[in-house]
Amino acid sequence: MECMASVCLCADWDLLHGVQCRGQPEPALYNGGILKFGNSDDPDGYRTTETGVFSPAFVVYNLNKTTMYTFSCWVKLEGASNALITARLAPDNTGARCIATVLARSDCWAFVKGGFVLDWPTQTAVIFFQNADKTPMKITVASGSLQPFTTDQWAMHQQDTIRKRRKRVATIHVADPQGARVVGASVSVQQTAKDFPIGSAIASTILGNQAYQKWFVDRFNAAVFEDELKWYSTEPTSGLLRFDVPDQMLAFVRSHRVMVRGHNIFWENQDATPRWVKNLTSPDDLRAAVNARIQGLMTRYRGEFAHWDVNNEMLHYNFYEQRLGPNASMEFFSVAQDADPLATLFMNEYNVVETCDDPFSTVDTYAAKLRELRAGGAILEGIGLEGHFSRPNIPLMRAILDKLATLGLPIWFTEIDISNKFDAQTQAAYLEQVLREAYAHPAVSGVMLWTALHPSGCYQMCLTDWGLNNLPTGDVVDRLLNEWRTLQAGGQTDAHGAYSFSGYLGEYILTVTYNNRTTQSTFSLSPGDETRHINVQM
């Protein structure tokens, strides 16, 4: 259990249940919170609704602006073996919004988890359920829960998780050569490298631009190439291979000890497929081309890229699977694994965590595709969430991360940005919300920003202008990067010859001074619940 002030966030419970169906619904989270079924006071009661009908449904009153509401329940169907069900909120009859989705079934109970934040207070709101394709069926709902959290409670939970998952307590023990405790020694620790990867996309514009290079390496420990590895860049016409630019970009990140993701081997979007590939009418010719692509790319860069996005956005597009058969993606993963067994292979998709309005990429759809690939033999070990946000729904974001966490794989945000339809200050505010939630979630292993800089700007969001002057989003990133590192800690050893501190995970330099003698060493803080003990002899 994780607690927000006096209310516990049921994260551990979700790790047990997640995206799996159950024979019976579990009790309501938070004892139902403020949610009641009609006139019933039983939060675990069963209620049935016909598709598209509001009553019976959850009716709630006096919801507040800015409060974080987490919603959950269990759902079962009649009249269809399975269906995509959407939970929708209709506040004061002003239109309905999606707050959660689930792939529900008739033979078991499926867990729904989501949430919302309101723009304005509402006197009466209805939470109801719809079948995405509108076919007639009965939807039975049980164990409903709606739990409010203040923004302060939400932030307290984030900080508590960061303390437990992103930091560790260390104790420095100082002794003389005879093993006697040294009391009053001056201890100083300075973090030299961060454990948690936070990075950004880069483009060829960084080559030869020393100011941009310095700006980048001063901030980030991870990178991804925006377009330079995509097939249309490396082989614009059949047989014409162009790796000079990605080779130079790789040399840059390697020289600064920056980890780099490989993006991407294939992209199911027909519009992002090289024209000459689209013109291959024979399946045999297309198969030969894709095999040459994957073998050539993976052999050339074997061991260089920590991750590979193998078949980008396969939930939305199907160029290769339509032409090579439904097993094409499994074959891509298998060949990639053989070619570079040390790389972690990822799915990468948009609108999984950004919204629940996209029926192609719901959290359960993503999980089902991942399980399908793994059942077919694919060595798929990473969950890639692009993170192209409009206005973020942070309770929904957490709910989706909780469900994906049950799969037991590292989750990476691979392309975070905020839509440029917002002004600069709003972009910055939304970016901070997203980054804080991502960093605080224990299942998230890394964060990449989609902010490759060009003279004309960026895809949706820049951190600086072309002169490297910070925009409001850049101020947010700089502030968070400084907040999430141990700039320096120090003090004197106590009566037991020890000095303790809590530091962010990563690499450190330790300096100890006593009676005009100084010793220096290095140590690391790796993930762990126990205190890290470092012994120093003066």
Automatic annotation (TrEMBL):
Pfam families: Glyco_hydro_10
GO biological process: polysaccharide catabolic process
Any one GO MF annotation of this record: endo-1,4-beta-xylanase activity
Positions annotated as active site in the UniProt record: 415 (nucleophile)
Keyword vocabulary terms for this entry: Carbohydrate metabolism, Glycosidase, Hydrolase, Polysaccharide degradation
InterPro entries: CarboxyPept-like_regulatory, GH, GH10, GH10_AS, GH10_dom
Domain GH10 residue range list: 183-480
Family: Belongs to the glycosyl hydrolase 10 (cellulase F) family.
Identification of the protein by name: GH10 domain-containing protein
